[in-house]
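User:
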Amino acid sequence: MLKPDTNPTPWFARILRAAAFIAALAIIATAAAPRALAAITAAGEPPELRELLVRLQRHYQETQSFSAKFNETITRPGASPLHRSGTLSWLRPGRIRFDYAAPQPETVVSDGRTLYDYDPGLNQVIETPLKDAIKAQAAAALLLGAGNLERDFSAMRSENSTNDKLTHVVLTPKGGGPRIEIGVDRSTSNIVTLTITDALGNRTEFHFLDIQLNIALAPANFIFNVPDGADVVTSGAGP
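Assistant: Predicted structure:
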C-alpha cells in the first residue's frame, strides 16, 4: 500500500539520523583542495585546526568502506533521552546501512539514490529520494557531492570541555541549518563522535566503536527489499 506523507518532519528527522555520519565523512572526503579546507576556518583560528582538517580530508579520501558499532542518544527538550545502539556500514559512493538492535529494532538503508527506513514493529517503510535531502540541508547535500565547503560551512574548535581525549570541531552551515560537531581521534584520524543539533535544541549524538576501514562489503547489503505486507510511505521535499 502506497501512502503519501504530508508531514515533512518524520522524513527530515530520518534523513538527519541516517545521513549524520556519512554527511560528516563527505565534508572531510570531498574533493576540495587543502586551500578550501583552510578557508572554512574562522579568522585567527590556530593552524593546528587547519592541519587537522587537511589530515581528515586525506584520511577519508583514502577510505572506500568502513563498518562500526554505534551508540546513539537522541535528546529533545522536555523529553527523556532515547538511547539506542547497533551497527553501521558504509560503501562509497553514498551507500550506508544502519541496523538498530532490540528492543527498538530498525533498519535504515541507502543504495545511493533512495533512503529506506524500515520499522518492523509498525511493519512500515518510509522511502525518501536522497536528492530531496539536498534541498533540505547543506550537510546532506555534501553526502551526495552537491555541497561546497568554502561556500557553505565555517569551522572552529569546540568550546565544550570534555575528557574523552578527542579533538572536537564544530561545522556550522553558513546558510543556516543543523550544527555538526565531530570528535576526532588524532592518532588515527577517525571520527569517533558526531553530534547534530538543530535550532529547536534537538540533539542526535553518535559514538562509534570498533571502526574498521577499507574492508570488503558486498554491494548487495545496501539493497533493500520491502517486506511482504509492509506499508510504504513515500516522502520528500517536493518539487
